[in-house]
Amino acid sequence: MYKNSRGRPRLVLAAAAVAQFAFALDMSVVNVALPAIRTALGFAPLDLSWIVHVYALTFGGLLLLGGRACDLYGHRRLFVMGLAVFGLCSLAAGLAQAPWQLIAARAGQGLGAAAAAPAALGMLTTTFPEGPRRVRALGVWSAVNAAGGALGVLAGGLLTEYAGWRWVMLVNLPIVAAALALDPASAPRGAPPARDEGLDVLGAVLASGGVGLLVFGVVRTDTQGWGSPASLATLTAAATVLAAFVFAESRAPAPLLRLGLLRSRWVAGANVLVFLAAAGQFSAFYFVSLYMQQVLGMSAATTGAAFLPFSAGLVAGTLVATRVAAARTPRAALVPGALLAAAGLAWFAFITPDGGFLTDVLGPSLMTSIGTGLVLAPVAAAATTGVTAREAGMASGLFNSSRQLGGCIGLAALATVAAHRTGTASGPAALNDGYASGLAAAAALFALAAVVAIGALPRRLAMTPDPQPAAPAENRLEGTPS
């Protein structure tokens, strides 16, 4: 690894994992508190969803820019700065007195997360060389990330019910403080940029604008509909801007995203796979939570507690995946994991209006979570396989973007599927049918992810040469001194 690395790799891993826990927690912890926030701050019904959407918009829209900035200005610098912005905006959100103040603070949280999340993954990639050690490190990172999302529902319910909605925002402060206290001062700074390299301003504008328009168009489909003129215009504009981004990157001397990176079957396959898996995972989380509350009549706190077995299954699946992927390849865990998650979600599709936690939720929760855990750890390792230290942030930003976009687009699309099945009815039976349809569609997404893993990912770790001019040996992950 590195000559002066005693104790440092664990410190880097701890800091990255704690930070990622906060970002994942923030994606789900707010949902349960929305009714209380609406009452306290006087949100209009149609504006309330923007508490969730604006975070996804800024987070997803700026990840590529954040990843490239990490490569140019240093992973640790962006990690600390992003965490600081995230923490300060969490404080502002907790103290908000008006709807616009909370929306602005949530946008700031997304901005901070977009800088720190790819920096965290980039630090792990440059600290742990390819092989079992990186797989184990990314397994821990993935398990904590998954646990943050799962425990967010529990934390949101408990905090809203017993402490007040403001603590849903303020809970980030001690987590951010812990990550900063673990400040990996000796983390590798990454390869210095070449003299002619600078931030690709045109690429940054096009990427952020295109992804932002895409997320904006998708998240508005809950009120506008997929076929509305507003949605079609926004999505068409997003496609146009993203096409312009690809064209610009193919000619940029120092691109925000080097298109040659996608020639790697590991990188391209892992990003497609995580897009599909995130779409299925986020949607399943949403439907199961609504099923327990709106069909089974469980309280917010009880619903949160009911996700504890899911969290345990995620951790168990991740632990198994790290052993399998370390001994063989990421593909060896990704294929069975995606198939197991698909089977669990297909089981979930048989939920009934007169069911219960033990009969309709516990079994499929464990199967789905173990399968998802088998996917989450090795897919991050696959997405960074063969990537040089100079492009670690770029690959990390791409991976995080794929995951965020998959979750956002998948949830919007499957919510439409569920709403179409439910129709205008609002009784438990109709809602149950809608959620079951959404869960069946989520199962199909994981099955498709398994097909991608089988067809796209190499069976061996042998990599094709990087088409970019080679960096000095000491800057390549494979040649990092130990």
Can you put this structure into words, describing what you see?
It contains 20 helices and no strands. The longest helix is centred in the first third of the chain and has 31 residues. The protein has 482 residues and is an all-alpha fold. Helix 4 runs parallel beside helix 7. The N terminus and C terminus are likely disordered.
Instruction: Detail the poorly predicted runs.
Output: 1-7, 463-482
Radius of gyration: 21 Å
Q: How would you spell out the order of helices and strands?
A: HHHHHHHHHHHHHHHHHHHH
Query: How can the largest sheet be summarized?
Result: none
Q: Could you give the distance between the termini? A: 4 Å
What is the mean pLDDT?
Answer: 84
Share of residues in strands: under 5%
Count of helix runs: 20
Shape: globular
Q: What helical percentage do the residues reach?
A: over 70%
**Total beta-strand segments:** 0
Q: Given the helix and strand composition, which structural class is it?
A: mainly alpha
